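Case 341 in the screening queue. Each case pairs one protein sequence with one candidate compound; here the compound is 2-OXO-4-methylpentanoic acid. For every case the pipeline is the same: read the inputs, emit a complex structure as tokens, and attach any notable structural observations.

Predict complex for case 341.
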Amino acid sequence: MEKIDWGSLPFGYFKTDYNVRCYYRNGKWGDIEVSSSEYIPMHIAATCLHYGQEAFEGLKVFKGKDDKVRVFRWEENARRMQRSADGIMMAKVPLELFREMMIKAVQLNWKYIPPYGTGAALYVRPLLIGTGPQVGVKPAEEYMFMIFVGPVGPYFKEGFNPVKIQLVKDYDRAAPQGTGHIKVGGNYAASLRPATRAKEEGFASVLFHDSRHRKFIDEAGPANFFGIKGDKYITPKSDTILPSITNMSLRQIAEDMGMKVEVRPVPVEELKEFDEVGACGTAAIISPICLIEDRETGEQYKYCEDGKAGPKSTMLYNKLRAIQYAEEPDPYDWVEVIGEK
Ligand code: PLP
Ligand code: COI
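Case 341 output:
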């Protein structure tokens, strides 16, 4: 294995030694298979290729201060993947199968788990696809569930340094009553054009309006949005955003730090009232936001003008990271030890 510069890993694909796969055929899941191939042989009429029968997850494994290896809230990801499967008529992966395959994938690639202190983590990417052929628009009868892993750094190259975000109104990532609340590939396909444009125009990510009323904040590309106002942690309530496990965790931490948590529609005009704003997610962790620019009106909302994350975001970030890296006890039972050294 070539030497890995753990401290400067980007968030990206990293080839490791093995991945694990399991097939659903004739109404049941088969045996877990280990593969060293980066490819999947597939039927040309597989429904994932034609009709987007595809869902994925993203979770992280951390090597802690005590050298134990922990996975963060895997059961929430496994349940969300079941909801995604349900939403687009795919076979559901049982929680135990999810867990067993996840642990196997991590164990087989143990040497790729970033050491404690590097700020990196092992990213676990479960993928569920319709592999059975259909030409009429129908759910497949066969599915593949697979998991690959790879070491990653933070999603935004800025890490915990504030990023600039572009608020857009001319694209939606998901329709009202569509698939925005589940983690299916089509939502991400729909985000590619506005997200690429935002990057070309100098922003780290795009911030979507809600697609029903067109006046509330939805989410920030691949992450949820939150704002801090005084001692309040405020985050959008919307049917078209992905219920983020990171956001759920931050709400709990915020409450336990004595903050008030509000989950409600957040009108765009409220952007001027926040003391701090940020994007949160497994990949993004917490990305503080220093500037939001409304692409349509040119209006700018500025935060942390000293170039640093605000105090509340910093406290939330530190607490979450301390639990993930076992620097502090985990009072919530969020982490599960899956091995040592
Ligand atoms: N929103 C979207 C669209 C995402 O893709 C993600 C990433 O999974 C999130 C939010 C954050 O969710 P989580 O904290 O569960 O990773
Ligand atoms: C995650 O945060 O795990 C994600 O899946 C976000 C993104 C890479 C799609």
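Case 341 observations:
- Residues 185-200 form the longest helix (16 residues).
- The chain has a mean pLDDT of 97.
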